[in-house]
Amino acid sequence: MRNLCRSFGSAMSYSEFLNAIDVTQGNPHLKSQIFFKESERPFVYQNYDDSPERFLLAASRLIDLRPDIIDMNLGCSAKNVSNRGAGAGLLKTPLKIAQIAAALVKQSTVPITAKIRLGWDDASRNYLEVAHILEDSGISLIAVHGRTRRQEYSGQADWQAIAEVKQAVKIPVVGNGDILSYADGLRMMKQTGCDAVMIGRAAIGNPWIFANSDREKTEPAEKLRVITLHLQEMVELYGEKIAVLVFRKHLLKYMSGYLTTPEIRRSIFSHLDAASVLAEAAALLQCN
User: Fold this and answer.
1) Per-residue pLDDT reduced to its tens digit, 38-56
2) Which positions are annotated as active-site residues?
3) What residues make up the domain containing 267?
4) Strand, coil or helix: what is 43?
5) Please, what's the b/e burial string for 227-260 (b: 16 or more CB within 10 A of its CB; e: otherwise)?
6) Are 197 and 189 in contact (CB under 8 A)?
7) 3-state DSSP helix/strand/coil percent for the chain, to nearest 5?
8) Interatomic CA distance for residues 27 and 148, integer angstroms
9) Helix or strand or coil: residue 145?
10) What domain count does the chain have?
11) CATH of the domain at 230
12) Which H/E stretch holds residue 176?
């Protein structure tokens, strides 16, 4: 997916969420999680934990794999992450953030960046305090998701808060939240003054967003070309069985408007080999 997004114009690629425990102690899926292609550069490893010592050790091991940047994730709202004090949970402990950030910057041979939310909840919106801490620690860039941890992905992202961070620090600021189109990205940059925008969920099944194209107006043959390329690259990385299963969430988005009944969805999601998935997708897109 990252490679596809880059081919359509994305400027920087982030790894999937990497648990420092997995990086330091091992995980059966770690090999595929840390894999990246040279074509994805500049490439960022996105790391999270609640232990400063483990954070540093994981970053050290990831740096050996020659990424361009190491990112501190201080924004994940998932309960199994944030409730143990990692991800957005670290926003509750600014002093620990300062400890981790300063140590990472000191030991690292690549730039250190961070992604934050606005705070744990509306009663503790400490994003400006955290932004200053990160800047003072030597962080090179801050990405800001305009929601609190309590909001998760509900409600509307607060773009004004992103603007406040941009005005408060001298390092680059990346805005994130509620960017559903290329036009939304331009609007956020104009409204907040941020230096760039980060797109996540809206790019699933829609790499065309980076090329200022509308997926709904994309020709069926082009959709099938991208679906085929995406699934083939996943098969190369994961093996066919796992790739086909993992690809379902992408296919659901790619085929928006075509998987119109439970029967159709059951049929296309029942396949366990890539050729059958692509054949049914081609039939639904009328590309045979």
Assistant:
1) 999 999 999 999 999 999 9
2) 76
3) 219-284
4) strand
5) beebbebbbeebeeeebbeebeebbeebbeebbe
6) yes
7) 55, 10, 35
8) 30
9) strand
10) 2
11) 1.10.1200
12) strand 173-176
